[in-house]
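Teaching assistant's notes for section 4

Start the section by putting this record on the projector. Ask students to predict, before seeing the second block, whether Alpha/beta hydrolase will look compact or extended. Collect guesses on the board.
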Amino acid sequence: MSIDYEAEYNNRARVPEHPALIAGWAADAAAYRDAAGGELGVPYGPSERMKLDLFGDGGGPLAVFIHGGYWQGLDRSSFSHLARGLVSRGVTVAMPSYDLCPSVSVADIVDQIRAACAYLWRRYERPMAVAGHSAGGHLAACMLATSWPSVAAGLPAGLVSSGYGISGLYELEPLVGTSVNTALKLDAAEARRLSPLAWPAPRGRVFDAVVGGAESAEYLRQSRAVTQVWGDAGVRTRFEALEDANHFTVVAPLADPQSAMTRRLASLAEAAGKP
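Reveal the predicted structure now:
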């Protein structure tokens, strides 16, 4: 039976109430910034969108959260509130934005997030846990599987010690024939080249793939696939489907200091800083 990839990857159609959920993100994020302050708009590269926000005192473990939007929408300003849980546990959280397709390519975005992580290493000189939602989950997996010494001199192999993908995309080829690809402009070869599932597995490191239990079969398959393939190759992987969560509600636990998601990501960030 053929798979309707257009339907499987059209998250907004699957969740009709998504406009209210996205508006809620923006309102909660603005309220958190007003209350928490933070160091906002820190440049890590030359373009206007190559900036990041920092929350926390900078003295403890370090985590990065990468926003989603199918590499073509949203920015860090809608997700500030998701730092609340981690900051309350002593973790410094960096939230980068990046340029969007079609103005740049997906490959360019991967390089931009590498630049953000390299900036954070040079600033704090400590390894980090990298998390991301949707397209951000793809980017988190790419960061974990990156050979950092080949990116720039002086970057350590263990710059990113763990990854946490929330409803991530690890195999991009199914997107090629969908409307998502109108802006991405991927052909099959480029989609495969940019699929972390096809990269050498980051053996010895940690990767969690969490997905909403109410998401499409393809999103569930992608998260299972990366944990199985990387797990077989020596990555310490973990799969979890959050009951009743959809593509837009699945990230909500990060705002709660006591949630299992926050506690797990905090433990990964803490472990990143240990020798």
